[in-house]
Specification:
It contains 9 helices and no strands. By secondary structure, the chain is an all-alpha fold. InterPro entries: DUF1275 (IPR010699).
Length: 249
């Protein structure tokens, strides 16, 4: 899921990565709306809020929103920076796993802070929303970087537009038989459905688990980070077993 890069990735690689990361983004977004009354999986609306706050002369609120936008930007920048700087220094899998682990730590921090330190103040809320936006920037930067911008999972605006374009293209028979277009449609549809189900899971989960919803998101991120490690270990065990069977002592 994380080992391969750009055009070396298969449709299955992108669908697994897209589904799990979109599911986690949907969970985070709904949980943050429930707790903080703020969206954290994208920054589209915050550009408008930033302009609105400046037009009203609310300089502090405008600065906070600008900080949120910058942290999403920094998260995306950091993901790609680690990936390109890691080439030749450590394995491709490690380069791709680092942003996921940073996202894991950011969301884990939010969950722990909510459980043990949160005083429900405005400043704390602004700080925790910033941490989640940084985490979502990390995720979106990672998925876009390693998939050659095919997989973007923290917001659905462009994805919905792309789906609409594909559906219109499928009105022509030859396009319905184009494997590349059909595969892209399946990938985008998978991401959209996973995001919605993640949101549903996050909303329902928060009713029963409260802040534990953030820990569940962390568990999903660990699965993403460790999936390829498990596959490599499994392949190694199978190879060693077959070697022992074919070359008995």
């Amino acid at each position: 899921m994380l080992r391969k890069y750009s055009n070396h990735r298969t449709l299955g690689d992108n669908m697994k990565l897209g589904a799990l990361t979109a599911f986690s983004a949907g969970m985070v977004n709904v949980a943050s709306v429930t707790v903080f009354f703020a969206f954290t999986s994208n920054v589209t609306g915050y550009y408008a809020v930033f302009a609105q706050e400046l037009s009203k002369g609310n300089w502090y609120q405008g600065a906070v929103v600008l900080l949120w936008i910058l942290l999403f930007f920094i998260g995306s920048f950091l993901s790609n920076f680690v990936i390109i700087q890691g080439k030749g220094r450590w394995s491709q899998y490690i380069s791709h796993a680092i942003p996921v682990l940073l996202e894991f730590l950011s969301i884990l921090f939010v969950g722990i802070y909510l459980d043990f330190f949160y005083g429900n103040s405005l400043q704390e809320t602004e700080f925790l929303v910033a941490a989640l936006l940084f985490a979502m920037g990390l995720q979106n930067g990672l998925t876009a970087s390693i998939s050659n911008s095919v997989v973007k999972t923290t917001h659905l605006t462009g994805l919905t537009t792309d789906l609409a374009i594909l559906v219109s293209m499928f009105s022509k028979r030859e396009n319905r038989q184009n494997k590349g277009l059909v595969d892209k449609f399946h990938l985008l549809l998978t991401i959209m459905i996973a995001y919605v189900f993640g949101g549903l899971f996050g909303g329902i989960g928060y009713l029963y688990l409260g802040n534990g919803t953030f820990y569940l998101t962390c568990a999903i991120l660990l699965i993403i980070a460790l999936y390829d490690f498990y596959k490599l270990a499994r392949v190694k065990r199978l190879f060693e077993r077959r070697h022992r069977e074919t070359c008995p002592a």
